Every structure is written in C-alpha cells, then in structure tokens.
Amino acid sequence: MSKTDPKTIAPLAGQETERRDPKFRDLAKLPNADVLSTLLAGQQRAIDAVEIALPAIDQAVVLAKQRLTAGQGRLIYAGAGTSGRLGMLDGVELRPTFNWPPERLLVLLAGGNKAIKTAVEGAEDSAKAARLATQKAKITKNDVVIGLAASGTTPFTRAIIKSARKHGALTIALANNPGSPLLADAEVGVFLATGAEVLAGSTRLAAGTSQKVALNLFSTCLMVAMHKVHDGYMVDMVASNDKLRQRAVKMICAITGCNESVATGAILACDSNIKAAILNVQGVTPKGALELLQQTQGNLDQALNKIR
After folding, report:
1. Does the annotation count 124 as an active-site position?
2. Which of 216, 218, 128 is nearest to 170 (CA)?
C-alpha cells in the first residue's frame, strides 16, 4: 500500500506547518497588494502539492471504489478543527451532487457538532473520545475512513484511523508534514507538501486549501468511477429545487436530443431520477428503467447499450 517513504524526504526539525518562514516576517509592514500576492503564492503552493500527490490520490480512489462497490459500506471522514470541517464539507456535498445515500456517509468531528462553528478546546487531543466514536460508528471492513490532519499528529484523528484499520476498514490519511505518523497509520497516505505557512501555524491557509482540493479530486473521481457522471453531466444529481429541476431537464435534452416538454414529462414520470428519465425518453417504462439501472449497477452507458 502507498505510504510516505521517510527515505525520500529530507529530515526537518519540527513540523513544517508550524515553522515560521523568515521571508514572511515583515508581512504586516507590507501594503495590502503585496500581502494579497504573498497569500496567493501560498495558495499556489497548495495546488502544486496536490499535483505531486496525484498518484497517491489515484490509488485511494481505486481502493475506495473496490471497497464501496463490494458492499454497502460508508464513506467516513474524520478530523479536528479546520481539517475536520473540510472533511464534513466534502461529505455533505456528495448527497445533492451525486445522490450519495445519507446512510452511507458519516463524519467524525473532534468535539462533535458543536465544533462545526466553535473551537472545542482539547477535543483534538482526546484519543479516548475517538475510540468511543469509532465504537458508536460500528466501523466494518466495508467502510472507507478518511483521516485529515495538517500536522499528521492529531491524537483524535490518529486514534480513529488506527481503530478503523483494526476493524478492517480501508483507511486513507491526508497530512501536510513529512514523515507524519498519521500517514503511516493508514493504508494509503497522501502527503501534501505545502511547507511553512505565510502565517506560521495558520493551517487554514495552504494546508487547508491543499486538503480541500485533494478531497474534491478524490471524491469527484470516486463518483465518476462509480458511474455517477455521463457525458460530463451529474446524472445522479438530486433535483431538489427549481434551479436544479431546470438543470435536469436541460441535461436530459442534451443527452437524448428530446425537447424540454418531453424531458419534463420523463423527469416527472421517473420521480426526478435523471438516469431513469433518460431511459424513459428512449422508450423504457419508469419501472423498467429502474430495473435496468439496477442490473447495470447504475451504469447509464451500459443501460443505454442494452436498449440500442
């Protein structure tokens, strides 16, 4: 499995994410334009770090797809502070964007729901709370657990990953310090080499951006691999409001070549299921469309090929 190889990383004193870079010491004396350009350069480093980590992210996608298609396993995000909130944000967006079932999503945030808006002092240091959370979650070998920590040393996140791995779950870790123990705790370690922050220790900057981008790539690529995208469209999207219903109609028109009236009728007949509506436009009954999608594990390409 992919892990950070300490032999490939130059030894560093302390944690890079906590180090003050001397070149930023006069930041507060600079005009706003220079502060902004300096901060933007830090964000660019975050993108560069994700690019270097693409092979590890690719491996995480491959293994996660295998695990999640083999059963009804869950995507479980775990973290504290900024990292935990980024995991939560990535997870909650999967339902409206890709119709990922809510029962197959779990977020383990240090400090619980209170920590979404307010820092909970000491929560990230509690390995005991993490073990209790994993027991309550009843993690199994079917689950995929993603642990995030810029430092790579957060006791809460490390305990989640170690416990999940003992229960046979696929474990993936994202961290921003070289040689982080969290990367070694997981089966797949994604090292995001963002280096020292423009503001020493402010990991909501480059480290946070790199984690957000890496999560975007991981979850979107995973959903593509799980047949939730067709012709560049989000065909498993939940059409939950007028704007999204209009988008669904236009999507059906673009894919099938039908007019908006036909697409609207199909989306209504198929209870807002876009894939089923596309098949319905091709002459399949709503019930038959659902059965066909079940047979093909939601692969619209295969379902369309069966009726052509």
Report:
1. yes
2. 218
CB under 8 Å to 254, separation ≥6 — which residues?
A: 231, 233
Long-range contacts of 226-235 (CB under 8 A, 24+ apart): 226/65, 226/68, 226/69, 226/298, 227/297, 227/298, 227/299, 227/300, 227/301, 228/98, 228/99, 228/298, 230/255, 230/275, 230/278, 230/300, 230/301, 231/255, 234/97, 234/98, 235/274, 235/275, 235/278, 235/300
Residue whose structure tokens are 């901060």? 39
Which one from 16, 51, 93, 260 is the annotated catalytic residue? 93
Q: Is the pTM of this model over 0.85?
A: yes
pLDDT of residue 112: 75
Are residues 303 and 276 in contact, defined by beta-carbon separation less than 8 angstroms? Answer: no
| DSSP symbol at 241 | S
Q: Over the chain, what is the mean pLDDT?
A: 90
Choice among 124, 197, 260, 291 that is catalytic = 124
* pLDDT one-digit tens code per residue, 35-89: 999 999 999 999 999 999 999 999 999 999 999 998 899 999 999 999 999 999 9
CA dihedral 148, 151, 155, 160 (to 10 degrees): 20
Q: Quote the pLDDT of residue 192.
A: 97
